[in-house]
Protein backbone atom coordinates (compact mmCIF):
# COMPACT_ATOMS: atom_id res chain seq x y z
CA UNK A 1 0.00 0.00 0.00
CA UNK A 2 1.15 3.49 -0.83
CA UNK A 3 1.99 5.47 2.29
CA UNK A 4 0.15 8.77 2.74
CA UNK A 5 2.43 11.79 2.65
CA UNK A 6 2.15 15.46 3.58
CA UNK A 7 1.87 16.21 -0.15
CA UNK A 8 -1.22 13.98 -0.42
CA UNK A 9 -2.93 15.83 2.43
CA UNK A 10 -1.98 19.23 0.97
CA UNK A 11 -3.32 18.26 -2.49
CA UNK A 12 -6.61 17.00 -1.03
CA UNK A 13 -7.18 20.21 0.97
CA UNK A 14 -5.72 22.53 -1.66
CA UNK A 15 -3.20 24.03 0.74
CA UNK A 16 0.61 24.16 0.79
CA UNK A 17 2.75 21.39 2.24
CA UNK A 18 4.23 23.87 4.71
CA UNK A 19 0.71 24.62 6.00
CA UNK A 20 0.09 20.89 6.54
CA UNK A 21 3.47 20.48 8.24
CA UNK A 22 2.81 23.38 10.62
CA UNK A 23 -0.68 22.12 11.40
CA UNK A 24 0.61 18.65 12.24
CA UNK A 25 3.17 20.24 14.56
CA UNK A 26 0.40 22.30 16.23
CA UNK A 27 2.02 25.59 15.18
CA UNK A 28 0.39 28.81 16.37
CA UNK A 29 0.85 30.16 12.83
CA UNK A 30 -2.05 28.04 11.56
CA UNK A 31 -5.68 28.85 12.31
CA UNK A 32 -7.81 26.48 14.36
CA UNK A 33 -10.20 25.64 11.50
CA UNK A 34 -7.40 24.78 9.03
CA UNK A 35 -5.58 22.81 11.71
CA UNK A 36 -8.73 20.79 12.45
CA UNK A 37 -9.27 19.99 8.74
CA UNK A 38 -5.65 18.80 8.41
CA UNK A 39 -5.79 16.60 11.51
CA UNK A 40 -9.12 15.02 10.53
CA UNK A 41 -7.91 14.18 7.01
CA UNK A 42 -4.57 12.87 8.34
CA UNK A 43 -6.45 10.54 10.66
CA UNK A 44 -8.84 9.39 7.89
CA UNK A 45 -5.94 8.68 5.49
CA UNK A 46 -3.99 6.90 8.28
CA UNK A 47 -1.06 9.30 7.96
CA UNK A 48 2.04 8.49 10.04
CA UNK A 49 4.98 10.92 10.12
CA UNK A 50 8.35 9.99 8.66
CA UNK A 51 10.71 9.52 11.65
CA UNK A 52 13.72 10.67 9.62
CA UNK A 53 11.95 13.86 8.58
CA UNK A 54 10.87 14.46 12.17
CA UNK A 55 14.41 14.04 13.43
CA UNK A 56 15.63 16.61 10.92
CA UNK A 57 12.99 19.06 12.11
CA UNK A 58 13.56 18.48 15.81
CA UNK A 59 17.30 17.74 15.68
CA UNK A 60 16.53 14.59 17.69
CA UNK A 61 16.27 11.02 16.43
CA UNK A 62 15.36 9.47 19.79
CA UNK A 63 18.03 6.86 19.03
CA UNK A 64 20.95 6.04 21.33
CA UNK A 65 24.06 4.28 20.04
CA UNK A 66 25.67 1.72 22.37
CA UNK A 67 29.16 0.39 21.65
CA UNK A 68 30.25 -2.77 23.47
CA UNK A 69 33.28 -5.01 22.89
CA UNK A 70 31.24 -8.20 22.53
CA UNK A 71 27.49 -8.66 22.83
CA UNK A 72 27.90 -12.42 23.42
CA UNK A 73 29.57 -11.65 26.75
CA UNK A 74 26.79 -12.13 29.35
CA UNK A 75 28.07 -9.14 31.32
CA UNK A 76 27.49 -6.75 28.41
CA UNK A 77 24.16 -8.42 27.62
CA UNK A 78 23.00 -7.55 31.14
CA UNK A 79 24.31 -3.98 30.83
CA UNK A 80 22.37 -3.57 27.57
CA UNK A 81 19.22 -4.89 29.27
CA UNK A 82 19.62 -2.18 31.90
CA UNK A 83 20.17 0.48 29.23
CA UNK A 84 17.06 -0.60 27.32
CA UNK A 85 14.98 -0.65 30.51
CA UNK A 86 15.58 3.07 31.03
CA UNK A 87 15.70 4.11 27.36
CA UNK A 88 12.38 2.48 26.43
CA UNK A 89 10.62 4.14 29.36
CA UNK A 90 11.99 7.53 28.19
CA UNK A 91 10.94 7.01 24.56
CA UNK A 92 14.38 6.19 23.14
CA UNK A 93 15.46 3.37 20.86
CA UNK A 94 18.76 1.58 21.48
CA UNK A 95 21.03 0.66 18.56
CA UNK A 96 23.81 -1.80 19.44
CA UNK A 97 27.29 -1.75 17.88
CA UNK A 98 30.13 -4.21 18.54
CA UNK A 99 33.79 -3.23 18.41
CA UNK A 100 34.99 -6.85 18.80
CA UNK A 101 37.77 -5.30 20.91
CA UNK A 102 39.18 -3.74 17.75
CA UNK A 103 40.23 -0.07 17.66
CA UNK A 104 39.52 0.46 13.94
CA UNK A 105 36.08 -1.12 14.28
CA UNK A 106 35.36 1.15 17.24
CA UNK A 107 36.31 4.24 15.24
CA UNK A 108 33.97 3.15 12.42
CA UNK A 109 31.14 2.61 14.93
CA UNK A 110 31.63 6.10 16.40
CA UNK A 111 31.55 7.69 12.94
CA UNK A 112 28.41 5.77 12.01
CA UNK A 113 26.61 6.87 15.19
CA UNK A 114 27.54 10.52 14.52
CA UNK A 115 26.64 10.39 10.82
CA UNK A 116 23.28 8.71 11.47
CA UNK A 117 22.23 11.52 13.81
CA UNK A 118 21.95 9.47 16.99
CA UNK A 119 21.20 11.65 20.00
CA UNK A 120 24.12 10.31 22.02
CA UNK A 121 26.26 7.28 22.70
CA UNK A 122 27.17 4.92 25.51
CA UNK A 123 30.60 3.30 25.21
CA UNK A 124 32.66 0.55 26.80
CA UNK A 125 36.14 0.80 25.28
CA UNK A 126 37.74 -1.82 23.07
CA UNK A 127 40.84 -3.54 24.39
CA UNK A 128 42.87 -2.19 21.47
CA UNK A 129 41.93 1.46 22.06
CA UNK A 130 44.81 3.65 23.18
CA UNK A 131 44.05 6.77 21.10
CA UNK A 132 40.84 8.56 22.04
CA UNK A 133 40.81 11.22 19.32
CA UNK A 134 37.58 9.87 17.77
CA UNK A 135 35.76 10.45 21.06
CA UNK A 136 37.47 13.74 21.88
CA UNK A 137 36.46 15.33 18.57
CA UNK A 138 32.78 14.52 19.10
CA UNK A 139 32.84 15.51 22.76
CA UNK A 140 34.35 18.91 21.91
CA UNK A 141 31.46 19.47 19.49
CA UNK A 142 29.00 18.90 22.33
CA UNK A 143 27.91 15.40 21.33
CA UNK A 144 26.66 13.52 24.45
CA UNK A 145 28.93 10.60 25.42
CA UNK A 146 28.85 8.47 28.56
CA UNK A 147 31.43 5.74 29.27
CA UNK A 148 30.67 2.62 31.28
CA UNK A 149 32.77 -0.26 32.67
CA UNK A 150 35.84 0.27 30.45
CA UNK A 151 35.96 4.02 30.85
CA UNK A 152 38.21 6.73 29.44
CA UNK A 153 39.70 9.05 32.06
CA UNK A 154 41.08 11.46 29.43
CA UNK A 155 37.64 12.83 28.49
CA UNK A 156 35.69 14.96 30.96
CA UNK A 157 32.25 13.40 30.68
CA UNK A 158 29.91 11.20 32.71
CA UNK A 159 31.14 7.70 33.58
CA UNK A 160 29.75 4.59 35.29
CA UNK A 161 32.02 1.90 36.69
CA UNK A 162 32.35 -0.44 39.64
CA UNK A 163 34.84 -0.11 42.47
CA UNK A 164 37.49 -2.18 40.68
CA UNK A 165 40.12 -1.48 43.33
CA UNK A 166 37.93 -2.59 46.24
CA UNK A 167 36.66 -5.67 44.40
CA UNK A 168 40.21 -6.76 43.58
CA UNK A 169 41.34 -6.06 47.13
CA UNK A 170 38.53 -8.22 48.55
CA UNK A 171 39.28 -11.05 46.12
CA UNK A 172 42.98 -11.07 47.02
CA UNK A 173 42.23 -10.72 50.73
CA UNK A 174 39.90 -13.73 50.50
CA UNK A 175 42.71 -15.87 49.04
CA UNK A 176 45.04 -14.68 51.81
CA UNK A 177 42.48 -15.62 54.47
CA UNK A 178 42.21 -19.07 52.89
CA UNK A 179 45.89 -19.55 53.68
CA UNK A 180 47.39 -18.73 50.27
CA UNK A 181 50.97 -17.43 50.49
CA UNK A 182 52.00 -17.19 46.83
CA UNK A 183 49.18 -15.49 44.94
CA UNK A 184 49.51 -14.84 41.23
CA UNK A 185 47.53 -12.23 39.33
CA UNK A 186 46.48 -12.53 35.70
CA UNK A 187 45.61 -8.97 34.76
CA UNK A 188 43.76 -7.62 31.77
CA UNK A 189 45.40 -5.45 29.09
CA UNK A 190 47.39 -2.72 30.90
CA UNK A 191 46.06 0.12 28.72
CA UNK A 192 42.58 -0.37 30.20
CA UNK A 193 41.85 1.54 33.40
CA UNK A 194 39.89 -1.37 34.90
CA UNK A 195 42.96 -3.62 34.53
CA UNK A 196 45.22 -1.11 36.27
CA UNK A 197 42.74 -0.51 39.10
CA UNK A 198 42.32 -4.25 39.74
CA UNK A 199 46.08 -4.75 39.68
CA UNK A 200 46.39 -1.92 42.21
CA UNK A 201 43.81 -3.59 44.48
CA UNK A 202 45.73 -6.88 44.31
CA UNK A 203 49.04 -5.20 45.15
CA UNK A 204 47.52 -3.22 48.03
CA UNK A 205 46.06 -6.33 49.66
CA UNK A 206 49.42 -8.12 49.52
CA UNK A 207 51.18 -5.09 51.01
CA UNK A 208 48.63 -4.73 53.81
CA UNK A 209 49.07 -8.38 54.77
CA UNK A 210 52.86 -8.15 54.40
CA UNK A 211 53.03 -10.73 51.62
CA UNK A 212 55.88 -10.12 49.13
CA UNK A 213 54.85 -8.96 45.67
CA UNK A 214 56.49 -11.20 43.07
CA UNK A 215 56.57 -9.59 39.62
CA UNK A 216 57.25 -12.97 37.97
CA UNK A 217 53.75 -14.19 38.84
CA UNK A 218 51.93 -11.05 37.66
CA UNK A 219 50.95 -11.64 34.04
CA UNK A 220 48.68 -9.97 31.50
CA UNK A 221 46.05 -11.48 29.20
CA UNK A 222 43.35 -10.32 26.85
CA UNK A 223 39.90 -10.59 28.41
CA UNK A 224 39.23 -13.99 26.86
CA UNK A 225 39.58 -17.57 28.06
CA UNK A 226 41.67 -18.79 25.12
CA UNK A 227 44.62 -16.50 25.78
CA UNK A 228 44.21 -16.90 29.54
CA UNK A 229 44.57 -20.67 29.12
CA UNK A 230 47.95 -20.15 27.43
CA UNK A 231 49.08 -17.58 30.02
CA UNK A 232 48.10 -19.86 32.92
CA UNK A 233 49.96 -22.80 31.38
CA UNK A 234 53.05 -20.59 31.31
CA UNK A 235 52.45 -19.55 34.92
CA UNK A 236 52.07 -23.14 36.12
CA UNK A 237 55.19 -24.20 34.21
CA UNK A 238 57.33 -21.49 35.80
CA UNK A 239 59.80 -21.76 38.65
CA UNK A 240 57.44 -20.26 41.26
CA UNK A 241 54.84 -22.62 42.71
CA UNK A 242 51.66 -20.61 43.23
CA UNK A 243 48.86 -21.61 45.57
CA UNK A 244 46.35 -18.95 44.55
CA UNK A 245 45.34 -17.02 41.42
CA UNK A 246 43.29 -13.84 41.22
CA UNK A 247 42.08 -13.37 37.63
CA UNK A 248 41.05 -9.89 36.48
CA UNK A 249 37.85 -11.21 34.86
CA UNK A 250 35.75 -14.36 34.81
CA UNK A 251 36.68 -14.96 31.18
CA UNK A 252 40.35 -14.99 32.22
CA UNK A 253 39.49 -17.18 35.23
CA UNK A 254 37.71 -19.70 32.99
CA UNK A 255 40.93 -20.12 31.00
CA UNK A 256 42.89 -20.49 34.25
CA UNK A 257 40.34 -23.03 35.51
CA UNK A 258 40.88 -25.16 32.41
CA UNK A 259 44.68 -24.93 32.67
CA UNK A 260 44.68 -25.96 36.34
CA UNK A 261 42.47 -28.97 35.58
CA UNK A 262 44.60 -29.85 32.55
CA UNK A 263 47.72 -29.86 34.76
CA UNK A 264 46.14 -32.42 37.08
CA UNK A 265 45.94 -29.96 39.98
CA UNK A 266 42.91 -29.61 42.23
CA UNK A 267 41.02 -26.48 43.21
CA UNK A 268 41.17 -25.19 45.86
CA UNK A 269 43.62 -27.58 47.60
CA UNK A 270 46.53 -27.15 45.17
CA UNK A 271 45.52 -23.75 43.79
CA UNK A 272 42.68 -21.50 44.91
CA UNK A 273 41.13 -19.49 42.06
CA UNK A 274 38.89 -16.42 41.97
CA UNK A 275 37.65 -14.26 39.09
CA UNK A 276 35.79 -10.98 38.61
CA UNK A 277 32.28 -10.38 37.15
CA UNK A 278 30.06 -13.29 38.27
CA UNK A 279 29.06 -14.51 34.82
CA UNK A 280 26.23 -17.10 34.88
CA UNK A 281 28.56 -19.90 33.75
CA UNK A 282 30.84 -19.52 36.79
CA UNK A 283 28.45 -21.39 39.10
CA UNK A 284 28.28 -24.29 36.62
CA UNK A 285 32.01 -25.04 36.45
CA UNK A 286 33.51 -27.97 38.34
CA UNK A 287 34.40 -26.79 40.89
CA UNK A 288 32.18 -23.67 40.81
CA UNK A 289 34.21 -20.48 40.44
CA UNK A 290 34.53 -17.89 43.19
CA UNK A 291 34.26 -14.37 41.84
CA UNK A 292 33.53 -10.70 42.45
CA UNK A 293 29.99 -9.79 41.41
CA UNK A 294 29.36 -6.63 39.39
CA UNK A 295 25.87 -5.03 39.22
CA UNK A 296 25.74 -5.10 35.41
CA UNK A 297 22.03 -4.31 35.02
CA UNK A 298 22.30 -1.37 37.42
CA UNK A 299 25.37 -0.14 35.51
CA UNK A 300 23.33 -0.05 32.31
CA UNK A 301 20.46 1.78 33.98
CA UNK A 302 22.78 4.36 35.53
CA UNK A 303 24.62 4.99 32.25
CA UNK A 304 21.36 5.40 30.31
CA UNK A 305 19.93 7.81 32.89
CA UNK A 306 23.06 9.97 32.75
CA UNK A 307 23.07 10.03 28.93
CA UNK A 308 19.38 10.86 28.54
CA UNK A 309 19.70 13.65 31.08
CA UNK A 310 22.70 14.95 29.12
CA UNK A 311 20.70 14.84 25.88
CA UNK A 312 17.74 16.67 27.41
CA UNK A 313 19.82 19.11 29.45
CA UNK A 314 23.06 19.70 27.52
CA UNK A 315 24.18 22.46 29.89
CA UNK A 316 24.42 19.89 32.69
CA UNK A 317 27.72 18.62 31.25
CA UNK A 318 29.59 21.39 33.09
CA UNK A 319 29.98 19.04 36.06
CA UNK A 320 30.88 15.47 35.10
CA UNK A 321 29.40 12.69 37.21
CA UNK A 322 31.30 9.51 37.98
CA UNK A 323 29.02 6.81 39.38
CA UNK A 324 31.00 4.07 41.11
CA UNK A 325 28.92 0.99 41.96
CA UNK A 326 29.77 -1.47 44.70
CA UNK A 327 30.92 -5.03 44.06
CA UNK A 328 30.28 -8.14 46.17
CA UNK A 329 32.41 -11.17 46.96
CA UNK A 330 30.85 -14.48 45.84
CA UNK A 331 32.69 -17.40 47.45
CA UNK A 332 32.37 -20.83 45.82
CA UNK A 333 34.35 -24.09 45.91
CA UNK A 334 37.24 -23.00 43.65
CA UNK A 335 38.75 -20.92 46.47
CA UNK A 336 37.20 -22.19 49.70
CA UNK A 337 40.06 -24.01 51.45
CA UNK A 338 38.99 -23.40 55.02
CA UNK A 339 35.54 -24.85 55.82
From TrEMBL:
Coiled coil ranges: none
Keyword Translocase in record: no
Keywords for this protein: DNA-binding, Transcription, Transcription regulation
Pfam family, one: LacI
PROSITE patterns per UniProt: HTH_LACI_2
InterPro entries listed in its UniProt record: HTH_LacI, Lambda_DNA-bd_dom_sf, Peripla_BP/Lac1_sug-bd_dom, Peripla_BP_I
A single GO molecular function term of this UniProt record: transcription cis-regulatory region binding
Domain HTH lacI-type per the UniProt entry, residue ranges: 4-58
SUPFAM superfamilies for the chain: lambda repressor-like DNA-binding domains, Periplasmic binding protein-like I
Signal peptide (UniProt feature, chain positions): none
Protein name per the record: LacI family transcriptional regulator
Organism: Runella rosea
Amino acid sequence: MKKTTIKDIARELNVSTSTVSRALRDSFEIGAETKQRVLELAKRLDYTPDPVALSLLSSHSNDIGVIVPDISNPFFALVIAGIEDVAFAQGYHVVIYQSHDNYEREVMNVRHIANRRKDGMLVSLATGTQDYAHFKALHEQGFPIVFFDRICDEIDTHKVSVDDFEGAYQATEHLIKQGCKTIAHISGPPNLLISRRRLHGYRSALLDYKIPIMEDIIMSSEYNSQEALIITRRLLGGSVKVDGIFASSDNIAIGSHAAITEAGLSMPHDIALIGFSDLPITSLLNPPLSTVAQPAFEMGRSAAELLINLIKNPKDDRVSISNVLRTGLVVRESSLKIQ
